[in-house]
Amino acid sequence: MKKIILSLFTIFLFVQSNIAQNQFETEGVIVPRTIEFQKRALQLNGFGTRSKMWVDVYVQALYLTNLSDDAQYILESDTEMAVRLQILSNLVSSKKLTKSLNNGMKKSVGEENMKQFESQISLLESLLSSEDTKKDDAFNLIYNPIDRSIWVYKNNKLEGKIPGFEFKKAFFGIWLSNNPVDADLKNDLLGK
């Protein structure tokens, strides 16, 4: 009888540990271990919280086809990858989110290099503001190397695509460049 109880308890622990490994929770947000894109599973590389002026703005996760802690390798990679942003505050509107992403790109690539991305930035702004952003909205921004564009999903609905491999590098550079918006978040995304 003791062996049966011990066996059942072991099975229970194994099942619980597998469930726990399929997702994580931070700031009340469930972060999945994988996300599906074009019949491929992208693996969670790391996640963290972006805070600004003592307000937690969003939980962000980075998903890759090949896990890496090398930011430059990730930026230069022409493989599927994604960032997931889940909004934590009602203070975040579509306008504030796009302004924040714009400022992050300026910081990443330098203001003098922003002109080349004007059309993509305009498209990003229109896709993110199709309806106003509110707390708990989730954005998946997934780079597809086949058409070399970032596919923008809001709450699992495809809003549109933003073309350009150079734009992909600049966009992911918001968090992974040598001059990221948040160095601690960069380390979290890289699993450091």
Give me some keywords for this one:
192 residues, Chalcone isomerase, two-stranded antiparallel ribbon, 6 helices, 9 strands, disordered N terminus
Short note summarizing the structure:
With about 190 residues, this protein is of the alpha+beta class. Helices cover about 40% and strands about 30% of the residues.
- From the spread of the alpha carbons, the general shape counts as globular
Largest sheet: 7 strands, antiparallel
Task: Report Rg.
Answer: 18 Å
Stated plainly, the CATH topology is called Chalcone isomerase
Mean pLDDT: 85
In DSSP terms, counting alpha (H) and pi (I) runs of 4 or more, how many helices?
A: 6
Taken as a percent bin, the fraction of beta residues is: 25-35%
Largest sheet strand order: 3-4-5-6-7-8-9
Q: What sequence of helices (H) and strands (E) makes up the elements?
A: HEEEEEHEHHEEEHH
- Low-pLDDT runs of 5+ residues are 1-20
What is the count of β-strands?
9
Task: Walk me through what this model shows.
The chain is α+β, with helices and mostly antiparallel strands. The protein has one domain (2-189): Chalcone isomerase (3-Layer(bba) Sandwich), CATH 3.50.70. The chain is built from 6 helices and 9 strands. It has helices spanning 2-21, 71-76, 94-109, 118-128, 165-176, 183-189, and strands at residues 23-26, 29-32, 34-37, 40-52, 55-64, 81-87, 138-144, 149-154, 157-163. It has a 7-stranded antiparallel β-sheet with strand order 3-4-5-6-7-8-9. Strand 8 and strand 9 form a beta hairpin. The longest helix is centred in the N-terminal third of the chain and has 20 residues, at 2-21. It is globular, with a radius of gyration of 18 Å. It starts with a helix and ends with a helix. Mean pLDDT is 85; it is low at 1-20.
